[in-house]
Amino acid sequence: MKKFMLASTILWGFLPPSFASENFKNNIGLNLGYGQLTAKIQGEKREGDDFSGEIFYRRYVESKWGVELGYKAGFDGVNSILISQLDEIKDLSYSGPRLSLYGEYPLALGFNIYGKTGLTFYETTYKRKKDGLVSEVRDSNVGGELTTGLGWSYGHIGMHIEANYMRDSVISNKTVMFGLDIKF
């Protein structure tokens, strides 16, 4: 019996990672991205670039479908910072939670394509200069988000690249994000 257990343990260690990863129900990860941010503030349209980051937790309901809860934040990019010196609106940022449905389709060699759609609740913050006075403005809105991506995993570890579109009543954002995740 001991030999059987030892042989089973050794054999399990040599199984392909995709076979072993089928049983993971949880996933945590981190995304970093760069993209285009458009803001509509008090009737004025402001366009620029932005950096964004997010952390997320995903729970698989079935092997390829799940629910994802994340927290995302973004702020002005390099071009936006340079241009905002001439603008009345400065230091634009957003942050908040999101809730998404997630689905993936497996490809070969550990690759998969996936999509997410969900709701966001972001707080947008910026400084507005008017008549020589600077005031900080905060605005919270419910919006939507749509994402498609390509992922690769080996055992517990995964990497991905995704295209993300987010929109609410104040901002819209098109971002390319790179990320790492851990399945457990």
Automatic annotation (TrEMBL):
<dbReference type="Pfam" id="PF13505">
    <property type="entry name" value="OMP_b-brl"/>
</dbReference>
<dbReference type="InterPro" id="IPR027385">
    <property type="entry name" value="Beta-barrel_OMP"/>
</dbReference>
<protein>
    <recommendedName>
        <fullName>Outer membrane protein beta-barrel domain-containing protein</fullName>
    </recommendedName>
</protein>
<feature type="domain" description="Outer membrane protein beta-barrel">
    <location>
        <begin position="18"/>
        <end position="184"/>
    </location>
</feature>
<keyword id="KW-0732">Signal</keyword>
<feature type="signal peptide">
    <location>
        <begin position="1"/>
        <end position="20"/>
    </location>
</feature>
<dbReference type="InterPro" id="IPR011250">
    <property type="entry name" value="OMP/PagP_B-barrel"/>
</dbReference>
